[in-house]
Specification:
10 helices; alpha+beta; 2 domains; Rossmann fold; Dihydrodipicolinate Reductase, domain 2; 8-stranded mixed sheet
């Protein structure tokens, strides 16, 4: 483990974990086959650069960088890092290419931030949760993003509409509401073709008295299983590439532009973002 916080290092060191002050120290110590970067987003680029220079397989948590430009630089590294969109292993499992041409996908992800007990980061919903759902929309098959609009009455909530070349996504996120995830796909005629739901009041109560792994732990474990495959030179089936992470962050940046302009649709052409006509 590497962490600049000496108190956290000392806590883990007491449990026998080799604790280093920097990612460079960790890599120089040797014996590292894969690195998981779970630091605040502004520290991701430096750590991924160090891991790439050492030739180590890397998983960087979402968002891969605070902005689209940083995410693009991470995607240009060799070896290219993977990105931790763990909802691919839960709500979005096996949804790649599932959206019919011209269809619509509705996605929701909400939770109470205190339930996750973040150590130092309290990002707005746009960068905390929306990247997960933008990734699922692109993976499901909305196509190349054409225009993005967003609305938000408070930092803990955001709604995004993404128009793609092959479909439309409507996304809702909240960091201050009871945990729930949902996905619904409809074809061009409005017929429901897929629906998934996780969480909610009834399911939440059942989970408290039930047994088995927590759904978040299960998705993170599945993600690490695929990272291990990548470290052995195999190609993961579900893990997101840094190129896909950069595509997500271009949409997030356009959504931020839309919020700054009162919800005005922002057109995406390549990497440029301009108000839609």
């Amino acid at each position: 483990m590497a962490d600049p916080d000496p108190e956290r290092r000392s806590l883990l060191a007491r449990d026998g974990v080799a604790a280093h002050a920097s990612v460079e120290d960790l890599l120089e110590a040797g014996g590292v086959e894969a690195v998981v970067i779970a630091s605040p987003p502004e520290a991701h680029e430096h750590a991924t650069q160090a891991a790439a220079a050492a030739g180590v397989t890397t998983l960087v948590e979402k968002p891969p960088a605070p902005d689209a430009e940083g995410a693009a630089r991470i995607a240009a590294l060799n070896p290219m890092p993977w990105v931790g969109f763990n909802r691919r292993f839960a709500l979005g499992a096996n949804c790649a290419g599932l959206l019919p041409d011209g269809g619509t996908i509705d996605l929701e992800l909400r939770y109470r931030r205190f339930s996750w007990a973040p150590v130092s980061v309290r990002d707005p919903a746009l960068t905390d949760l929306a990247p997960h759902l933008v990734d699922l929309a692109l993976r499901a098959g909305v196509g190349a993003p054409h225009a993005v609009s967003a609305s938000s009455a408070r930092q803990d909530r955001v709604e995004i509409e993404l128009e793609g070349g092959a479909g439309t996504a409507r996304i809702r996120c909240a960091c201050d509401r009871m945990y729930r995830e949902s996905l619904a796909m409809r074809d061009a005629d409005g017929r429901l073709v897929e629906r998934r739901r996780v969480g909610g009041i009834v399911r939440g109560l059942a989970a408290r008295v039930g047994s088995g792994p927590h759904p978040l732990v299960a998705s993170l474990a599945a993600q690490l299983d695929e990272l291990a495959l990548a470290a052995r030179g195999e190609t993961p089936a579900t893990l997101a590439s840094a190129t896909e992470g950069a595509a997500v962050m271009r949409v997030i940046a356009a959504a931020a532009d839309s919020l700054a302009h009162g919800g005005e649709p922002i057109a995406l052409a390549g990497t440029e973002r301009t108000p839609a006509p």
